[in-house]
Give the backbone structure.
Amino acid sequence: MTLRNLFIRSARTILALLSVCLLAAGTCATVVADPLESFLTPAQDPSLAAATPLGEPWFDPPPGFESATPGAVLNTRIVNVGPLITPVASTQILFRTNDSKDQPVAGVTTVIVPTAPWTGKGSRPVVAYNMAIDSLGNTCAPSWTLPRGIAPEIAAVQLFLAKNYAVVVTDHQGPRQAYAAGRMAGHAVLDALRAMVNLPQLGLPAESPIAITGYSGGAIASGWAAQLAPSYAPDVNLVGTAFGGAPIDYRILLGSMNGNNAASTLFLSAAMGVAREYPEMFQLMNANGLRLAQIAKDMCVYLLAPGGLVAPIPVQALSDVPDVDHTPIAEEIIRQTRMGGDLAPSAPVFIYQGQQEFWVPREGAERLYDEWCAHGATVRLEEYVGEHIVVAVSGLPGSHQWIDDRLAGIPAPEGCSSFGR
């Protein structure tokens, strides 16, 4: 047997085993026409790394949807989500939104409303809760996991439902599952809230006060929605945004997560997710990068994260271009995906951050705070003892109280202030 034949046989075995693993994990990957050839000699074709479609016609937007306005309702269905303690009625909405390059795409959101009437002042408050999806496959999105009872952050949703708030959980990575593409995420969250208002039977009119929140990957969507709202969706009645552990700037994360044990595969996955919105990135990938994009295209975070413990691969290993992260393409995409800059929120913001963060350093949150404050925003920054996982829990009381106050109509103190910095 020649060396090439042995390699081909081994590759076939690896691909067969990988397919079994992916199917067992519930990713439902489909087989391409010639998977071996695509793996051995991968092309710089973004479609080869695209998430496998779910095959559910409900997710397909109707012809001509592109001419609808952002937030227009394209389809609806009643779903059961859980496990929850609070009795609720849940509706999924297919709506029109924009991707990172302002091209029309369809988004999906799940609106969860307690069946008990709202007895407080005004309309029932709404919390747009953004889960840390941090994945590349369609079966990882909240619209798929919530009805199946496997959404990893369902307890966080229950906390808000227990206060009789409505909760909106959006597939903020968009139809391409573009993990870490902030502009896409911000558009999706804001247009989901528009779609909610455009469905009167939900009982959540335009005057309903809305707060946006999320942690880590969910903070990407939350922060971007906050800073895009004044220009992109001034009609959304946003009264405040609270988020923590936010990946603000991928230039910073290149130093903290890239090739760094457990965090490395999440960083690689984020790079693959961003490439789905900015396909020019595929020009920078070598054969190994293109192969990895095919292997990981349907994986959820529970499959992606452990890989870094075994093989912490830096992004530079997936390109043959010298100093690849400083090429014009990379520099522009890093600029496009960095929170802050010329954008700033008009509604108040609460940011919480770990002082001992080693994956998502406090430098990003502090720089964002400074930039937003320089633009006249109202921002509260609180830094707590601990790293990413610890602060995900310890930051909840302060952020939830802040959200409760905003939804109750209590104004946030004007200007900027910080604690623990």
